[in-house]
Amino acid sequence: MAATFYGLMARFDTAPEIYHAAQQVRDAGYKNWDCITPFPVHGLDGAMGLRRSNVPKFSLLGGLTGFTTGMSMIWFTGAFDYPLIVGGKPYFSPLFAFPISYELTILFTAFATIAGMFILNWLPQHYHPVLKSKEILRGLDDAFYVVIEARDPKFDLNRAKALLSQAGAKEISELEA
Amino acid sequence: MSTHVATISPASGGSAAGSTRSVSAAANKALVLGLVGLAATGLGVVLSGKAAAFSYLTGLVFWVAVSLGALFLIMIHHVFDAGWSTVLRRQYENWITCLPWLGLLFAPLLISAVIAPGLIWKWTDPAYDLSQVGGHGTVAQDVLWVKKSGLLSTLTLIIASFVGFGGWTLISSRLRAHSVAQDNDGDIAHTHANRFWTAVGLPFTALSMTLCVILWVKALDYHWYSTMFGVWFFAGAIRSALSLGVILMVWLWSRGDYKGILNNNHMHSIGMLMFAFTVFWAYITFSQYFLIYMANIPEETFWYSLREINKDGVFNTWGYVGMFLLFGHFVAPFLTLIHYPVKLSKTWLPRVGAFIATVVLVDMTYNVMPSLKNSAGDAYPFLSLNLLWIATSVVGVGGVCVWAYLNSFAKTKLIPIRDPRIVESLTYHE
Amino acid sequence: MSNLFPKSANKLPLQILIFIGLTTGIVLAGVTYYATPKYTRVGYAPTQPVPFSHALHAGQLGMDCRYCHSNVEKSGHSNVPTAQTCMNCHNQIKTDSPLLAPVRESYASGNPVPWLRLHQAPDYVYFNHSVHVARGVSCVSCHGQINEMDVVHHAKPLSMGWCLECHRDPAKFVRDPKLVTNLDWKHPGGDAGQLEQGKKFVHDWNIQPPQSCSGCHR
Amino acid sequence: MAHAHTDHSAPAILAEVKPVAFPRATLVEKNRSFSWVTEKICGIIEGPTPRWWWIAFAVSGFLASFTVAGIIYLVSTGVGVWGHANPVNWAWDIVNFVFWIGIGHAGTLISAILCLLRQKWRTSINRAAEAMTIFAVVCAAIFPVFHVGRVWFAVLPGYLFPFPNANAIWPNFRSPLEWDVFAVSTYGTVSVLFWYIGLIPDLAILRDRFYRAGDKIRSALYGFFAMGWRGSNRHWSNYEMAYLVLAGISTPLVLSVHTIVSFDFAVSLLPGWHTTIFPPYFVAGAIFSGFGMVLTLMLPLRAIFRLEDLITQYHIDCMCKIILATGTIVGYAYGMEFFIAWYGSNPYEGFAFINRAFGHYAWAYWIMITCNVVTPQFFWFKRIRRNIGLVWILSIFVNVGMWFERFVIIVTSLARDFLPSSWGYYSPSAVEIFTFFGTFGVFGVLFLLFIRFLPIMPMAEIKAVMPQADVHGGHDKH
Question: Does domain D2-469 have CATH number 1.20.1630.10?
Answer without folding.
Answer: yes
